[in-house]
Amino acid sequence: MTDFLLELLSEEIPARMQARARDDLARLFAAEIAKAGLKAAAIETFSTPRRLALIARDLPAETEAVREELKGPRTSAPPQALEGFLRKTGLTQDQLTDRDGVYFAVIDKPGRATAAVLAEAIPAIVRAFPWPKSMRWGAASQSTESLRWVRPLQGIIALLGEEIVPFEIDGIASGAATVGHRFHHPGRITIGSAEDYAAKLRACHVIVDHEERESIIAEGATTVAAQAGLTLVRDEALLAENAGLTEWPVPLLGSFDASFLEVPPEVIQLTMATNQKYFACLDAGGKLVPNFICTANVEPRDRGVAIVAGNQKVLAARLSDAKFFWEQDLKVPLQDQLPKLEKIVFHEKLGTVADKVERVAKLARWLVEEGIVKSSPEQRSGEGDHAQHGGGARSEAEGAASARSAAGPSTGSAGPPPLRVAGEDQELADLAEQAARLCKADLVTGMVGEFPELQGVMGGYYARAQGLPPQVADAIRDHYKPVGQGDEVPTAPVTVAVSLADKLDTIIGFFGIKERPTGSRDPFALRRAALSSIQLILDNRVRVSLERLVASALRGFVRERFHYDMPDVEYEEASTWLKNLDVGELIVDAIPDFFADRLKVQQREAGVRHDLIDAVFALGGEDDLVRLLARVKALQSFIETAEGRDLLAGYKRAANILKKEAWPPSSPAQAGAQGEAVRGNPGLLLSQENGGGDVQGIPQTGEEDPFVMAEDLRDAISAHEKILSYTPEPEESSLIAALDSAEPRARAAVAAEDFEGAMAALASLRAPVDAFFDKVTVNDADPARRAARLNLLARMRDAVHQVADFSRIEG
Description:
alpha+beta, seven-stranded mixed beta sheet, four-stranded antiparallel beta sheet, 30 helices, 18 strands
């Protein structure tokens, strides 16, 4: 077994491309030698600014002989098919094997020397290498067939053990020589084998291991900062970039004029990191100090004095530019920047950024006016008059006023004043609208034009410097948050309103123009916007129906796209009206499902099962995400207990029986038989809790009117004078009694959002259900008994459905 060393020496490789290049080299090498039946015990890759290298461990001296079998055409195929197959295999017809009327070619391939395999593989790898950007050079570059590489290729090392693997790529012959550090050891170095590669280069001031260079920079920079009484601002991306820019890294401490600290610290840090690749430092109090740490690529003789002086001069020019942008932007109030947003297209089908700002401002105000986002502690606790408002029913006046408020100003009558807005809430609504109208104003400032990463952040600074309320400044600064998993989630009410409105408007808008995510394609980051919205809703316990949010955001889209204000109607009617639009049905139906999928993704890391989320969503009408997740978590805790597992098994057994028997029946004759069956036992049909006013044992699909069904069944009962002549089995009676007790308790607990209590009520059904299945024959020969017992199972199933659709639960 022998190690193979490959080094591809070139001019400077961009630091940002090196990590992917290492991975690509290992992947392509393994795939290429695998074609010949070779496999390395391990593959190590290295990179520096001037070289990409690989060591493959324990390669055999030669490949094993193999027999390859290729299937050809049928013996009855046209001659042309046979001729093509013979050309492909290089055989003659008499060398083929006939198996049941099909030609097969059996080719014995003798073993090959590994060096010969590598000599063919390396040129193929180099020519097929997937650099993000590559170039041609020299006289040969006039032809499109010339070699392409990230930068001009200068040399190749290819050593199998101590022997050179001979080949040539575009006039560059493989060998055993490379170069050391550009300044410390620019001469040629001869490498003996893979074993001495790293050691010889280290002796020539080149550290080939990128991870070791990162460690040297991190430890050195931390030490240099500590010696000055400072703390290094750790930046992993900047650390990797510095390692990719140096072969012999030496961290050095520099400084800049303290007057530049008047500029926001984010600007200074970004200027240093983006333009100069410098690390920032903090004092003991965590404040930015006028110091930086740069990484030299040489061992300076003067301890870095000249290098630091040069870097300080360049940084001063960069910070002067930043200070100029800062001072010029401060001269223009954010309000005066708004007309410029009319010239920025958000999307050709969604208008300008100014149009988006108008929609977001109205939606943010609506979120506060409707009490969805509040300033009181009720928002965090989930208590108060709105806690049950999200998914529950509203009064007629309340729903109509809500629709008018969401629709915003109309060309017709102004409508009644907004709901629940007075005093502090009125001020909160005004602040939310003001912040939303200004949240995109910094996009047209000089600073954000130079550093797009600072959008929002700079707007917050400008707002505060211009004397705007702190709630507005904070909302402008943080309205993009959260931007990813683990990012800070805003909790200030004004910020929550603006951030949620901005993300909902984006989702609604792109769904509305039929630009929803498909597969891995999500060019407008709608999945991330949905995840961020879910985080805002859950972390801030925002109590609202998802459908209400969608409908309100959709009103702004309709007004913008169709130049029409939605009718002043209840939400349910508004949803129906929206479906009459060209895209309304797509939006109303697709977005709740989209959020459900994102909720599963968001909760996966928290250990919440996706099938339980499906089980609760399947009930319908439950799209208050805070309440839904509370229900799901209680359900998960219950299902993990013995009572929960046994009840789930009993439920599925009951559901399978009811499905097999197609119960309950739907025809009038069958309904009459059902009435006869339950006539002798009213407990199977009429709830004891409300004196017979509620029908039990009737599975509800959500489409039928339960009161009409109740009347139909009562009529069916009265039409049959015969009373059943059998006495229920003890286990049958026990299950009826258990349901009489559990159903109202579970219903009341769900209404009070006490989902643990609802689960406890259902848990009491476990023993009676088990006993019923053990002792009672459901499909009794007596039709009356059979119908009554099927109704009892349907009643048990419906009792469980008060909490979740157990049919969606796995296991």
